[in-house]
Amino acid sequence: MAEKPRPVQVLYCAVCTLPAEYCEFGPDFEKCKPWVIQNAPHLYPDLVKADKEAEKTGEKLQGMQISGDQADSTAPAGSVSKQEEVKRLPGGKIKKKEKPEVVVEKVVRNKRKCVTIVKGLDMFGIKLSDASKKLGKKFASGASVVKGPTEKEQIDVQGDILYDIVEFITETWPNVPENAIYFIEDGRKVPAA
């Protein structure tokens, strides 16, 4: 006779209340690290190894910050350098802290109609609803604020205004430098300047 299936036992983090294997993707992994090292060392062997090395050298494991000369291939996957702040994404990808930039992209639909997409104006403190009104008025077209595929708001402007928009943005909002504006051409980010 087959054995009865047993319920899966899940170990939840006492700090962030996520399952322990998802702590690194939680809101504050830095606070979870000591708990994870003590209660679930099998899930993060690199973290345990780094903790033991830190104890040998007499240092306390604080935030897993290491200097640039110590960063090498043996550094744990969750470590960050003091020079740049990175964020760990699901799948082990590392996302660097975003610098403010405006990305302009032209999307062709139905082989002749174009939509110009403007992303990142909000990073410069510009209210997107006001910006869409100004863009629509300047280029005599429809412009609206929509949520993009990454759930960030962007401005969609009807028509091909890809190269005219750079001059308009830098004149209208002087706090947006021209070297912070990029085009997306053939899937690559190209500086507008």
UniProtKB/TrEMBL annotation:
InterPro entries attached to this UniProt entry: DENR/SUI1_TIF, DENR_C, DENR_eukaryotes, DENR_N, SUI1, SUI1_dom_sf
PROSITE patterns with a match to the protein in the record: SUI1
Keywords associated with the record: Cytoplasm, Ribonucleoprotein, Ribosomal protein
Biased composition (Polar residues): 64-73
Ranges for domain SUI1: 102-173
GO cellular component: cytoplasm; ribonucleoprotein complex; ribosome
Source organism superkingdom: Eukaryota
Region of interest: Disordered: 54-91
GO biological process: formation of translation preinitiation complex; translation reinitiation
Subcellular location field: Cytoplasm
Record's keyword annotation contains Transmembrane: no
GO molecular function, one term: mRNA binding
Family per record: Belongs to the DENR family.
Free-text comment on this protein's domains from its UniProt entry: The SUI1 domain may be involved in RNA binding.
PANTHER family xref list: DENSITY-REGULATED PROTEIN, DENSITY-REGULATED PROTEIN HOMOLOG
Subunit structure: Interacts with the 40S ribosomal subunit.
Protein's name according to its UniProt entry: Translation machinery-associated protein 22
